[in-house]
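User: structure tokens for this one?
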Amino acid sequence: MSSTLQLPHLRGDSPQQGSMSRHRAPRSAPLTQVASRFLPPHLLLLISMFSVQLGAALAKSLFPALGSTGTVLLRLTFASLMLLLVWRPRLRDYTRRDYGLVVLFGVCIAGLNGFFYASIARIPLGIAVTLEFVGPLGVALASSRRLPDMLWAVFAAAGVMLLAPIQGMRIDPVGVGLALGAAGCWAAYILLSVRVGRIFPGGTGLALGMSVGAIAIAPFGMRSLTVAWHDPSLLLVGAGVALLSSVIPFSLEIEALRRLPARIFSVLLSLEPVVGALIGLLVLGETVGLRAIIAMALIVVASGGISFGGKGDNNHPGR
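Assistant:
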């Protein structure tokens, strides 16, 4: 798609000790290892956020030809192939229960991406990303016993209420519901990613889960995807979406987490809705009203407050 579990991210994709997590993996792509030598971790994380949101904006250009579901299938297919090549997972030494966990994880990835892409077809990217953060925020609040976190919960609830389709609000209520569906899948994804990260090393669990996600969404997107086989440009854009939304941010976040405390990582990642709104404005020409800006600000502040208040050694699951 944070905090005492620490906030997470859409990216829609990544296990690793449960953290918006892509976190503490033993290795990453050579290109990002080189980048980490010259760039500070804060900048790596910022590039990761922009990469994810640029990927979402690029994905939106595929909707007229493939629909949101066909676009999700194309993205997950390319992303799983790329991650399988990078991580080359071994399929031995795991139990049926381990693979059952990966299947559930993959279904969550499919749901997270499916709901999110369907939502940005109806509402601005920045608003969809903000609502998606309700998932990790809910996980963080559910695991918290700190009184200040209740205040952040009020902030988040107020933000969601401001985005509700009442008093003439023009935001599509179906789009809001789909974004909240993505938030629920992200919450489940975070909880499962903790267990997957303990069993499967590095990005192995993510690569397998992404593959399962592609298979899970296939029955709903295959009909639209047949269009892409007759237009190589659509396949090229789909590969770009997978690279920007999954492979690049996953690798950059691994490097950033090696050098940043999990708490700081989570606080910085709380800015992603702002990045989403900025990309939506600059790339897609999407604008939001004052009420929506206030709502987004409340949820971002809540996410940052919970993340900053969490213990530094806790993990922060990400998409």
